Amino acid sequence: MKKKPERQQIANMKASILVLVVASLIFLAAVLWIHSKDFLNGIDEHFNAYGDGIVEFEKGTVLDILSEDMEPEEAADNAWRGNQKLSVVVRSGRYKGENMTANNYFGSIYGVPLAVGDGVVLTVKTHADGSHIATVYEFDRIPTLAVCLLLFFLVIILVGGRTGLKSLIGLIFTGVCLFVILIPLLLEGAPTVLTTFLVCAYIAVVSFTILGGVHRKTVSAFLGTLAGVCLAMLFGLAAQHFAKIDGLWQDSAEALVQMRYYGSAIHVKGLLVAGVIISALGAVMDVAMSISSSLEEVHAANPALSRKELFRSGMNIGRDMAGTMTNTLILAFLGSEFSYIIFLYAQGLTFRRLFSTAFVGLETISGLASSIGMILSIPLTALIASILVTEKATRNNSAREKKKRKN
After folding, report:
1. Which residue has the higher pLDDT, 147 or 167?
2. 3-52 pLDDT, tens per residue?
3. What are the boundaries of each domain within the chain?
4. pTM recorded for the entire structure
5. Alpha-helix runs per DSSP H in 38-141
6. Residue 150 and residue 140: Cα distance in Å, rounded?
7. Cα–Cα–Cα angle for 210, 213, 215, nearest 5°?
């Protein structure tokens, strides 16, 4: 006869496998549906056609510098600006192996001067008569980014071990969901806020299952995450309404609105709150899992603790996390726009002018909404975890009391 802990582990494993199988089926169904609607390929076609020609982006290598005309720009910290005429060999696409002459234009805020042997991304335009011309689009940064990504993976696995590997799988899954499911759906015109919330909830379920299986701590962490992200979303919607500001005020909004003329049906207004949901998800998941896991350990060390005492412990743990996590969220938002903050500061704007600008309003709403969702997830997760952790002990005590009364 198997012991109860072993039976419980087997039951948890079966539940985890079931959740992952169902999640995989949902993922495959979503991807197949998206591709059947041609979301991923349809948009690109509009941006690849230029007049009577077709534009393709291919990789290449610089063979020789035929000529160059460039000079340092003193006002831009001596950054180079000018142009180069290069001999390049195409490494991909229909013109693979062909040598071409390509112009490389660069300035202080776009492009870079290139050297022999550098990898490049080429813009190759093919006209209706078959003639074609190449231009340097950008320096090929994929190899460098791939090395950085590999180092990141190694650090996670070496330091985190098996748990680090699981978190890495969850991270990859999150990225795939965002780029393969969420963004194509939004481009097709799916409700921005609702779709983002549902995809993030789906990501949370799968990530927690991969990390800890179906267990009391992962269930409580998921419920706490769902509640925290929902509150962040509601705060963002309310703040957006009363501040009279939305996604149309964001820097990239104009380009996204223009995309609508090329077949995209994206709803730009909701992107502000969608960004809040995505930003809040990571922080809330971290806090919720930490509190749930801690309370599980506290209960294992002292099963005599009551539900109220466990809740109090969860709150104490959460308060210690709230300060640093809030700083992390706010500084992440500010750091992403640090150069523009410096620009605004240099204008000598008054307090009222500064905080009435759309930029400050957007960043304030984004940072505060995510932080509020994270902070409010602390008591909610602590409450849910304390209930679930002590539920079994409560049932056992009730059973013993009934048995005593019968005897």
Report:
1. 147
2. 556 777 787 788 888 988 999 999 999 888 887 755 444 444 434 445 56
3. 4-23+144-406, 50-140
4. 0.79
5. 39-48
6. 17
7. 145
